[in-house]
Amino acid sequence: MEGEIVNKVAKSGIEQLDLADFNKPSGIVEIDLMPLLWQELVLREKEFRVWVKEHDWTIYEGKNVFVHCSNDAIVPAWAYMLITTLLEKAKNVFYGNSDVAKEALFIQNLEQTSFDHLKDVRVMVKGCSSVPNPNRAFIVLTRRLTPIVKSLMFGEPCSAVPVYKQPKKA
Fold first, then answer.
1. Backbone φ, ψ for residue 88 (5° rounding)
2. What is the DSSP letter of 127?
3. Quick check: 151 and 15 in contact, CB under 8 A?
4. CA distances to 34, 71, 73, 108, 121 from 39, in Å
5. What's the DSSP call for residue 109?
6. CA distance 145 to 150
7. Structure letter (DSSP) for residue 132
8. Is residue 128 within 8 Å of residue 137, measured between CB atoms?
9. What is the pTM of this model?
């Protein structure tokens, strides 16, 4: 049929990956040490240990927990270590704010995803994506894909930038 619109991208055999598909942070819970500080400045060991003893740690089971202090107080390292020992049933424990936790979970998801289905496939990694620290994610993804894909491109099908091509087999 003359004038029929043909989707050449669909027929090209190129698998497109979007980093946003791997960005699924869920079950993130915060422990902020700031309310536990005396005058929001100093961590007093005796009061802190009472809080640690009385706190319900079961609420963190199976969750991704980030531990931080939301003000500029100096919190001793042992306090973070002590809390971490009590979060043994948490899925993950991160130091830093929620953005740090989300980025770490995103990268962890990229590192744990199986890409076996892309063996000897031409892959296009979508260029525009709303993910935390995309450059780090592109590096992780590239290291995961280059041993298995036929070729790796960046961008959109209309403006692809070749990144990697599998060497010819002898």
1. -60, -25
2. S
3. no
4. 9, 11, 10, 37, 59
5. H
6. 9
7. S
8. no
9. 0.76
To which H or E segment does residue 103 belong?
helix 98-112
3-32 CB burial, b ≥16 within 10 A, e <16: eeeeeeeeeeebeebebeebbebeebbebe
Q: If phi over 0 gives left and psi between -120 and 50 gives alpha, with beta otherwise, what is residue 96?
A: left
In the predicted model, what is the mean pLDDT of residues 21-38?
90
Q: Strand 151-155: give its sheet, edge to edge.
A: 14-17, 122-126, 151-155, 161-165
Domain ranges of the chain: 8-24+104-165, 28-99
Structure tokens at 18: 């979007």
Give CA–CA dist 16/32, Å, rounded: 40
For residue 90, count other CB atoms closer than 10 A to its CB. 21
User: Per DSSP, what are the bridge partners of residue 164?
Assistant: 152
Q: Which of the four pLDDT bands, split at 50, 70 and 90, describes residue 139?
A: very high
Q: Which two tokens stand for residue 160?
A: 């692809």
| Residue 148 CB-density burial (10 A; 0-12 exposed, 13-18 middle, 19+ buried) | middle
- DSSP state for residue 163 in the 8-state scheme: E
- The residue assigned the tokens 């010819």 is 168
- In angstroms, the CA 27 to CA 92 distance is 10
Mean pLDDT is lowest, of 8-22, 78-92, 146-160, for 8-22
